[in-house]
Amino acid sequence: MWDYSEKVKEHFYDPKNAGAVEGANGVGDVGSISCGDALRLTLKVEPETEVILDAGFQTFGCGSAIASSSALTEMIKGMTLDDALKISNQDIADYLDGLPPEKMHCSVMGREALQAAVANYRGEVWEDDHEEGALVCKCFAIDEVMIEDTIRANNLHTVEEVTNYTKAGGGCSSCHEGIENILTRVLAENGETFVAGGAAVPAPAAAAAKAPESPKMGTLARIRKIEAVLDSIRPALQADGGDVELIDVDEKSIYVNLTGACTGCQMAAMTLGGIQQRLIEELGEFVKVVPVAKESLVSMGA
Amino acid sequence: MSDIYLDNNATTMVDPAVFEEMKPYFCEQFGNPSSLHNFGNKVGFALKKARKQVQDLLGAEHDSEIIFTSCGTESDSTAILSALKAQPERKEIITTVVEHPAVLTLCEHLETEGYTVHWLEVDSKGRLDLDKYKSLLSDKVAIVSVMWANNESGTLFPVEEMAQMAAEAGVMFHTDAVQAVGKVPINLKDSAISMLSLSGHKLHAPKGIGVLYLRRGVRYRPLLRGGHQERGRRAGTENAAAIVGLGKACEMAAEHMEFENTQVKAMRDRLQEGLLAAIPHCFPTGDPDNRLPNTASIAFEYIEGEAILLLLNKVGIAASSGSACTSGSLEPSHVMRAMGIPYTAAHGTVRFSFSRYNTMEEVERVIEEVPGIVAKLRKLSPYWGEDGPVENPGEAFAPVYA
Ligand SMILES: Cc1ncc(COP(=O)(O)O)c(C=O)c1O
Question: What pTM does this model have?
Answer without folding.
Answer: 0.82
